[in-house]
């Protein structure tokens, strides 16, 4: 047992718990929880690897797998043993350089003082994000894969490399790699056979629809006055403040049946007949969804 002194916020005043006692989690329970937990670690420069990692967390939830995502620099490599599986998603920046959110981890994992068995038996998978127009294509993921095996980690599936120059960018390679990841999870008992639809997952965000008056009051601003009666009307579709509301004329999928299970890219055309509008490359289209 340990004694903790802290303040906690309960919505109104702060409450100070003095000398509160909390049992420390038993090591056996902590180890059991880690043995069922998949850690998804990313090294990202512009956010692409981070987004892929968080997408994978959602996929894990659909497969009944407990997973979390965090950047590599927040992880001590010596704390990885005991995890059910560790998944690395890392990009290569510049001329084969490590991304900003991975530099500290990379220095730590390359320490000569690390034992060759530091990651003994840790099952892992690694996906690299790169661009084949650069000479050192996916150099970071390749070097990480080699180093992990030098430290006795076990590749659950072979290294996979996404190429931004490919048709569809890195997505085709990413989706094919994810399929192998979940096949391994099912064979090892981590993942269930059934896959939940996205709408069955718990909500992650709360949407609060405000009003101009309330938003202005909370920010200290003033609500803009309505336009004078003699103000010339703005033609719909010529500025964001006066959009032209168009009906969808065509909505077709551009993806194969298998790819639509992961991501659906669609072709949409809109009816602007009679609007007096012309389309130019670079124009913006806003989507106003309606709940039914």
Q: Mind explaining what this structure looks like?
A:
The protein is α/β, with parallel strands linked by helices. Helices cover 23% and strands 22% of the residues. The protein is built from six helices and ten strands, in the order E-E-H-E-H-E-E-H-E-H-E-E-H-H-E-E. Strands 3, 4, 5, 6, 7 and 8 form a six-stranded parallel beta sheet that branches. Strands 1-2 form a two-stranded antiparallel sheet. Strands 9-10 form a two-stranded antiparallel sheet.
Structural features:
292 residues, two-stranded antiparallel sheet, 6-stranded parallel sheet
Map the helices and strands.
Blueprint: E1 2-9, E2 14-22, H1 27-35, E3 37-43, H2 48-62, E4 66-71, E5 85-91, H3 103-109, E6 123-130, H4 139-150, E7 154-155, E8 160-163, H5 171-187, H6 212-219, E9 247-253, E10 266-271
Parallel strand pairs: 3-4, 3-5, 5-6, 6-7, 6-8
Antiparallel strand pairs: 1-2, 9-10
Using the CA coordinates, give the radius of gyration.
25 Å
Distance between the termini: 53 Å
* Derived structural class: alpha/beta
Query: Low-confidence stretches at least 5 residues in length (pLDDT < 50)?
Result: 1-33
Strand content: 15-25%
How many distinct helices? 6
Principal-axes geometry comes out as elongated
How is the biggest beta sheet arranged? 6 strands, parallel
Compressed to H and E, one letter per element, the order equals EEHEHEEHEHEEHHEE
Mean pLDDT: 80
The proportion of residues forming helix, as a percent range, comes to: 10-25%
Overall number of strands: 10
């Amino acid at each position: 047992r340990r004694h903790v002194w802290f303040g906690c916020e309960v919505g109104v005043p702060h409450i100070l718990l003095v000398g509160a006692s909390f049992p420390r989690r038993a090591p056996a329970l902590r180890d059991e929880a880690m043995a069922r937990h998949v850690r998804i670690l990313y090294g990202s420069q512009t956010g692409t690897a981070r987004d892929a990692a968080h997408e994978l967390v959602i996929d894990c939830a659909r497969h009944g797998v407990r997973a979390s995502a965090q950047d590599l620099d927040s992880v001590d490599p010596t704390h990885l043993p005991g995890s059910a599986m560790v998944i690395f998603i890392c990009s290569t920046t510049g001329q084969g350089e490590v991304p900003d959110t991975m530099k500290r981890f990379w220095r730590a994992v390359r320490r000569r003082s690390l034992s060759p068995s530091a990651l003994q038996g840790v099952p892992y998978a690694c996906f690299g994000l790169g661009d084949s127009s650069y000479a050192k294509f996916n150099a970071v993921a390749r070097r990480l894969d080699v180093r992990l095996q030098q430290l006795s980690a076990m590749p659950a599936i072979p290294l996979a490399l996404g190429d931004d120059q490919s048709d569809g960018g890195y997505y085709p390679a990413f989706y094919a790699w994810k399929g192998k990841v979940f096949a391994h999870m099912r064979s090892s008992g981590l993942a269930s056979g059934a896959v939940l639809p996205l709408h069955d997952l718990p909500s992650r965000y709360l949407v609060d629809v405000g009003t101009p008056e309330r938003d202005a009051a909370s920010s200290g601003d003033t609500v803009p006055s309505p336009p004078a009666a003699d103000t010339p009307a703005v033609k719909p579709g010529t500025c964001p403040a006066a959009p032209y509301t168009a009906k969808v004329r065509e909505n077709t999928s551009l993806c194969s049946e298998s790819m639509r299970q992961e991501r659906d890219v669609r072709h949409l055309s809109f009816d602007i007949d009679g609007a007096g509008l012309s389309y130019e490359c670079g124009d913006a289209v806003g989507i106003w969804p309606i709940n039914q």
